[in-house]
Amino acid sequence: MRRFLISLAVVSSLGLAACGSSDSSSDTTAAGGAAKLAGGTGNDCTTDKTLTAATLTIGTGTPAYEPWVVGDAPEKGEGFEAAVAYAVATELGFDNEHVSWVRTSFDEAVQPGKKNFDFNLQQYSITEERKKTVSFSDAYYTTNQAIVGFADSSAAGAKSVADLKGLKFGAQTGTTSLDFITNVIKPDAEPFVYDDNAGAKAALEAKQIDAIVVDLPTAFYIAAAEIEGAVVIGQFPADANATPEQFGLVLDLENPLVACVNTALATLKDNGTLAKIESTWLSDKTGAPVISL
User: Fold this and answer.
1) How far is CA 80 from CA 2, 12, 128, 174, 205, in A?
2) Would you give the end-to-end CA distance of the chain in angstroms?
3) Fewer CB within 10 Å, N- or C-terminus of the chain?
4) What distances in angstroms separate CA 194 from CA 40, 106, 171, 191, one per listed residue?
């Protein structure tokens, strides 16, 4: 709860500062100058653009994992993505009482078809392939890939991709982590593919595979809190991919709400809120040996 209060304090203090400055219009003005609606029900930009009038519906995983959502309870605002979601909602003029959460699987949210959310966040990397079926917001986080294994496994001590060729890897289906194994590591054996990260972690814990590949903050959480004896073997350089590994909010294809969300994210970047949320929830989950290509 302490971290949630810190996150709320960051947003609130910045908002109060804006209200008290001489060049601020009023406390009824949201990001980009859009006027907030009465009762915390949105702003001029979001009018007629949300699934349900006066409500912002946000999607997350089923379940949602730490450090992105603490305790699988996004409504508490604890965890990096839960805090980002509420910060975006605030910039869009929605108070907490007018935010509703829904659950989807990872793949479900990026499949073609009508969505049951206004935006969804489950560490979705922005890719050209996914842009064919959904719209993305601007990036809210940039990360890189990492390997989790046991300290006594064949993966331990790897210093380069060449050291990894003979390992048995696993990853969640439809993820950039799986793409990274296939296209960058290129192991001798085909990677094992699982419906979700839970399946990949279970296989690692049972030592059916040597290592899994996930984003770096997730790797640290798995090693610290989920699989006894697991360690972060290493992380890959940020430029290991041709394009940066950036997470974006997922919206329905050609959703007009994208422009509103991007304005909110720009404000959160400019006023330092995103950086402070990242520091609160992810600052201790980024240091690991670098595995060279």
Assistant:
1) 13, 17, 25, 22, 26
2) 40
3) N
4) 41, 12, 6, 10
Q: Could you tell me if 18 and 134 lie in one domain? A: yes
Calpha distance 92→40 (Å, rounded): 9
Task: Give the end of a domain, one of 216, 236, 256.
Answer: 236
For residue 169, give both structure tokens. 């890897």
Share of the chain above pLDDT 70, in %: 88
Cα–Cα dist 159/235, whole Å: 10
Q: What is the rounded average pLDDT of the residues 170-179? A: 94
Q: Do 137 and 261 touch, CB atoms closer than 8 A? A: yes
Residue 63 is encoded by which pair of tokens? 């379940």
Query: Which domain range does residue 172 map to?
Result: 145-236
E strand intervals along 37-133: 56-60, 99-103, 119-120
pLDDT digits (tens, 9 = 90+) for 211-233: 999 999 999 999 988 999 999 99
* Rg of the chain over all Cα atoms, to the nearest angstrom: 20
Q: In 3D, which of 212, 228, 227, 232 has the Cα closest to residue 285?
A: 232
pTM comes to: 0.77
